[in-house]
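Quick one:
INPUT:
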């Protein structure tokens, strides 16, 4: 039986790690944050940031632990980095991870019937692509033999500082004379034209036939990497296309404010839990 999600609940959690996919370059791991109880707990997949070139499943551990302790099965996964394989490799890994978690959630007392995703920075970009193109043939490139009929559709998506428009973000790096950041974009979007094709903002502007699950965007007011106007434009375009998009600006915060403990980090943790709770209630009422 599916447990009713209460964001104010407090559970002990068990953390473990398993292999979820082998690639030509390495084994991708999944870090499981499992509430201790009968469940079945709603599930959330976490996608790490790192400008597509850095970091791994550990990048968002404080957020993952905070959400898991409220009664969510949270699974954070490795994604291939740009040096290993450019776009859309990381999106393919994430798409596979959605399907893999849906197929295996029960072994950790999870219920993946209303499955969501959480993504930070470049992981937010990947999360947006997953949400908007859940059945894209390129993103579904890796088969899941044990569950061939499971799809990657998402019930909701929560993001922190997502790269909603990677080309506009590249232009900002140019303006700030950040050569390393510019190179990271070029390493990931190779060939460079992919920066327009794999671009959530431009997908909406092209009026692509996309899915529009409810979305949360948490944005630092002082972010000079993905600047607030990029998120404001994306949120407005998403709503105009018919989607629900909650944009919340965090005063005094830069791009990675959740990396440090404090009131605004706590606020972000609580906001993610409250957003998920609202989505699960709405889905239950609509069922």
């Amino acid at each position: 039986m599916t447990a009713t999600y209460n964001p104010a609940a407090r559970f002990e959690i068990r953390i473990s790690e398993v292999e979820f996919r082998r690639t030509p370059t390495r084994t991708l791991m999944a870090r499981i944050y499992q509430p201790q109880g009968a469940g079945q707990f709603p599930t959330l997949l976490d996608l790490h940031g790192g400008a597509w070139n850095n970091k791994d499943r550990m990048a968002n551990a404080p957020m993952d632990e905070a959400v898991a302790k409220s009664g969510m099965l949270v699974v954070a996964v490795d994604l291939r980095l740009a040096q290993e394989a450019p776009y859309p490799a990381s999106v393919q890994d994430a798409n596979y991870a959605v399907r893999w978690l849906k197929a295996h959630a029960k072994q950790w007392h999870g219920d993946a019937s209303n499955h969501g995703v959480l993504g930070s920075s470049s992981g937010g970009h990947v999360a947006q692509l997953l949400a908007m193109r859940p059945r894209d043939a390129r993103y579904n490139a890796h088969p899941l033999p044990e569950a061939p009929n499971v799809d990657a559709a998402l019930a909701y998506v929560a993001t922190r500082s997502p790269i909603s428009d990677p080309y506009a973000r590249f232009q900002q790096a140019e303006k700030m004379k950040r050569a390393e950041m510019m190179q990271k974009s070029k390493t990931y979007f190779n060939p460079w034209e992919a920066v327009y094709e794999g671009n959530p903002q431009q997908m909406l502007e092209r009026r692509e036939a996309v899915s529009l699950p409810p979305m949360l965007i948490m944005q630092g007011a002082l972010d000079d990497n993905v600047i607030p106007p990029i998120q404001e434009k994306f949120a407005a375009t998403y709503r105009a296309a018919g989607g629900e998009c909650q944009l919340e600006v965090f005063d005094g915060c830069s791009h990675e404010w959740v990396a440090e403990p404090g009131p605004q980090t706590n606020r972000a943790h609580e906001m993610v839990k409250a957003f998920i709770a609202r989505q699960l209630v709405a889905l239950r009422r609509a069922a």
